[in-house]
Amino acid sequence: MITSTRRAGVRAVSSAGLALALPAFLASGCAPAGRTVDAPVPAGIRESVGYLTAAYHVSAADAMRRLRLAAAGDGLIRRLSAALPDEYAGARIDQRDGGVLVVAATRPARARRVVHGLEHHDEIKVVPAAYSLRDLARVRDRAAALTGREAYAQVNEASNRVEVWTAHRARVTRALTGLGPVVVRTEPEETLTECSVFECDPPMRAGISIGIGKKSGRRLDYCSSAFNLKDDDGGLYTTTAGHCFTELERKGKKPATIVSAKDHAIIGDIKNDRSVYANTRTPRLDYAFARVTDPGMWFPSGHSKNALYFKCSAEPQPKKCKTRNEDPTFKITGIKPYGGMIKGDVVCMAGASPRIGDVKPGTRCGEITDKPAGGIQTNICAKSGDSGSPLFDQSTHKAYGIESAVEGDDTGPCVKAEDQKTYYTPLSEALAAAHAAKGRTYELIAD
Hints:
Thrombin, subunit H; Streptogrisin_prodomain; signal; six-stranded antiparallel barrel; Streptogrisin C
């Protein structure tokens, strides 16, 4: 049964100071959707702007407006959910239809009155929804209790339903009969994107090629590096996809280390009792945190400990992304919580695939297209060797996730963005799972 208590009146909502928390180029004012003026594109967001202009045929000014709206989205959503706790039903950015923030509510007229008092109100569209997020959360929890470990239940804000992901569709469907707004889904066929050749160099950064090695350091395979972490004792970790190890184990090999792809030098020890790795699909938890064996070598003084190697790869924005653009010290300064990610968020991935005939190694941008089975889905091209690549927001410098797999072939030319499905483990969820597994706190290294 779904019930909720309605409150009389509308709670006042303030957005004062919202722009002050944004990067300078994002806090420079906003214009209503569709009304833009020519403006130079800052180097720090060139590739994200390039994706939007190429994908949606909008001006650079409108692309920057969309990025400003996305950066303000967290604050706007917090205020809306606080003012409408029993009516708020989620949000998404509709890049295809004007680049507006679409807010769903069970009482849309009431929600529109709240929106009218917000900054960016003329860039927000309110649509009706059958169920609030509170309603759906209750259904999700009931579904999880009924299915146990056979399935993973989550709220899909875009569809206003609870999705239950499982490999046992018939049995789970029977168990959930009559529960309400529930859709039972099975995992798509996908291809893991580990590979077999490339190079990397210190200092340790996200987005460079790494070797997966034996205890001796001899390479067995290649993946890409993700974000750098520390634990509550100050130990340092490099990260990648968990399947870079579990797939080798499944084949009877004995991976034990992350090594330099260039010279076999050991970077991290995955068999250290403080290291942790996993690879599950429901929920998607495909991550590996390997304790760094020589911090002095891989994190030398004078260098950022949380940099990302940003090298434009011109995919999928071939006319806007300049391959000469390179920043080996692009800083990652925070983590985007999984619950705060919404469909339409513009994101970028820095991958080290060696398949240079199919895709240039480096940074390519796109958007979040879904959040299936506790994971992230984007339309960003990924190929063999991109496993473990970091997913991040170029404009806010926030970490989103770790690349896991693609639906379809991981070789050959990139397909059209609308046909691409690349999957990631949310970093926030990987950190929580690692804490549960080890009883230790893992977090981004703060420079």
